[in-house]
Amino acid sequence: MKLPNLFMRTGTEPINGLSNPRLVMLVGWGGNNGSTLTGGVIANKEVSPGPPRTRCSKLTTLVKPEDIVFGGWDISDMNLADAMARAKVFNIDLQKQLRPYMESMVPLPRIYDPDFIAANYW
User: In terms of CB atoms within 10 Å, which end of the chain has fewer, N or C?
Assistant: First the structure.
């Protein structure tokens, strides 16, 4: 997924075919939390059984999962499918279903400052 240039957006043109997208930009998108949040929303709208309202009724009253567009930054340039596998939060079968959606998602470049990185990250 290639993210649009958000600063050039006028608010009238669609993003990823969505006329009313909800943009979610995460710092640390390629980490455990970012890949799990992204994968969970994708699973809810693309690979989980049952209609969306029964899968996640409280979230869908606020925003439709179909309208969410993710992006963000990370110190790693690992794609989100590999980050999801590294996190080991989802079971293997779900990871296999999510991989096609997440392998093209790569965090934006970051400013690297080792003083602000958890010691256990690497």
Answer: C
CA–CA gap between residue 105 and residue 113 (Å, rounded): 23
Q: Which amino acid is at 106?
A: V
**Confidence (pTM):** 0.69
CB of 115 closer than 8 Å to CB of 75: no
Handedness of CA 94, 77, 105, 18 (dihedral sign): positive
Confidence category of residue 4, pLDDT binned at 50, 70, 90: very low
Burial of 31 (0-12, 13-18, 19+ CB in 10 A): buried
Instruction: Considering only residues 111 and 30, tell me which one the structure prediction assigns the higher pLDDT.
Output: 30
Rounded to 5 degrees, what are φ and ψ at 95? Answer: -60, -40
- Name the nearest CA neighbour of 121 among 27, 39, 38, 30: 30
* Amino acid at position 67, single letter: D
* Domains of the chain and any CATH numbers: 28-110 (3.40.50.720)
Q: If you average pLDDT over residues 44-57, what whole number do you get? A: 61
